[in-house]
Amino acid sequence: RSPEAYARQLEAFGIPPGNITLVACRGAGPEHISNQQFDDQPPQINALSPETDIVTLTLGTNMVDLNVVFDACLHGRCGTRTYRSILEHAPNAQLYINLYTTPIQPRDICPTIINNDTDHFVASFIETVNQAIRDVVASMHEPRITLVEPPKDVDACATFGLGVVTGGDDVGHPTAHVHHQIAKATAEAILHDNNAPPKART
Known about the structure:
By secondary structure, the chain is mostly helical. The protein has four helices and three strands. It has helices at about 65-75, 80-90, 115-140, 175-195; strands spanning about 55-60, 95-100, 145-150. Helix 3 links the parallel strand 2 and strand 3. The two termini are about 15 Å apart.
């Protein structure tokens, strides 16, 4: 679990670090919320209880079958089961769903990451999934779900390359700089809803 993950940076924006339990894991997919990822790692949902005040969730588009997600989201099944399961296991919690940042926002003044067509496809696909999540959450009429919009101007172009990991196992992922901005947006949403830091477990 990366020390740069946005959940670990919430302290900088007023969320007490002692309240945070981080169960996100590199390589985990949506299925690992309710199923075991590794022998020594229980399902992520096991960390939830009636004492949990806040749950944050981010869907990484690289960890899912794009065709399945695209079809499910367009037909109103984008994450509903997962969201309801989380709320059932944490019946007193507010669920904050962080929409996904795009690694490249094509601009006339910027070079491409891969090639122009691919860059446009990636940006368009991520925004389509994000919009589908917005629509599904709106259709659920669930007051315990808050959407956290992705921070603006954190793509590779806007950050002069600082927004996207360009090498190693995490290529294409958000950098610590972007996680910091995601943490800021998440903390602002939490504090806006609570008017104070959460008192129990996050």
